Amino acid sequence: MKRATVCVLLCGCADLIGITDERQLSIVEIGVSAGTLEPAFDPAITDYDVVVGYGTGALDIHAEANDPEATIEIGGAQSVEGSLAVAVPIGDIVVDVVARTPSDVVVTYHVKVHRTDITIGFAAPRSVFTPAPGMISQLQAIDFDGDGNKDLGYATGFGDLGVMGNDGAAQFAPKSMYPFAGTRSFSARDLDGDAKPEMIVMAGQLWVARGLGDAVFDTAFGCGGVGNPGAFSFVHLDGDGISDLVVAEPNGR
């Protein structure tokens, strides 16, 4: 009697690693460095909007996939650890965020970025009336009385130099007025360290009126040596902590 021999071959099957079906692949997180994703991130939603300000020239985008083997591409470039900075022009740009597995399964999300343009607007003008007659030839916003608010200093064609005090709410009232014929420029600066700014005036020569406080000034005295100066400025030149005066003459010196 012959016996039948049956051979059973056991064939092993290698485990599949990673996702091979795009229906299983998704991005589980998208973050941006500025603005807010709209709607809030949900792996089932693939389209988002984000608005950033004019000052945002680049936006960092971070994304993660549910497959740890997947790479993340942001704006057409492969990211480093899931993050990449994308240049953002003014207007709209759509950034594709792509997850790609080693077996080339791909899923794509879209982030539409809107960078706003700069807008400049002004309130309606407010009239400020000075007590001095004549047309104002010069106007400067300087804290003349040391209260931390910018006052208005003005010079007129009739030779008057005045200060309109600011109450902190952009409401101005006359503070003081002095005769300075031929005023070409003026400023205020605390020169003697008493926290009361002095008035410096360029009119034929350089004049300094010591500050008495509250935008009131003593009789001005002339600074000799420079006739008819063209411009002046205060800078620290010798390192002693005291402002030095630099004067330019019309002849270029």
Give an overview of the whole structure.
This protein has 253 residues and is an all-beta fold. It has 2 domains: 27-115, Sandwich (Immunoglobulin-like); 136-248. It has strands at residues 27-32, 47-52, 58-65, 71-74, 77-78, 83-87, 91-100, 106-115, 136-142, 151-156, 160-166, 172-179, 185-189, 198-203, 205-209, 211-213, 216-217, 221-227, 231-235, 244-248.
Summary tags:
single chain, 253 residues, mainly beta, Immunoglobulin-like, five-stranded mixed sheet, four-stranded antiparallel sheet, 20 strands, 0% helix
Helices, strands, pairings?
Blueprint: E1 27-32, E2 47-52, E3 58-65, E4 71-74, E5 77-78, E6 83-87, E7 91-100, E8 106-115, E9 136-142, E10 151-156, E11 160-166, E12 172-179, E13 185-189, E14 198-203, E15 205-209, E16 211-213, E17 216-217, E18 221-227, E19 231-235, E20 244-248
Parallel strand pairs: 2-8
Antiparallel strand pairs: 1-3, 3-6, 4-5, 4-7, 7-8, 9-10, 10-11, 11-12, 13-14, 14-15, 15-18, 16-17, 19-20
Succession of helices and strands: EEEEEEEEEEEEEEEEEEEE
User: What is the number of domains?
Assistant: 2
- Segments where pLDDT lies below 50 for 5+ residues? 6-16
Widest sheet: strand ordering: 2-8-7-4-5
What is the residue-mean pLDDT, rounded to a whole number?
A: 85
- Give the radius of gyration: 37 Å
Percent of residues in helices: under 10%
Total E-strand runs = 20
Proportion of strand residues = over 45%
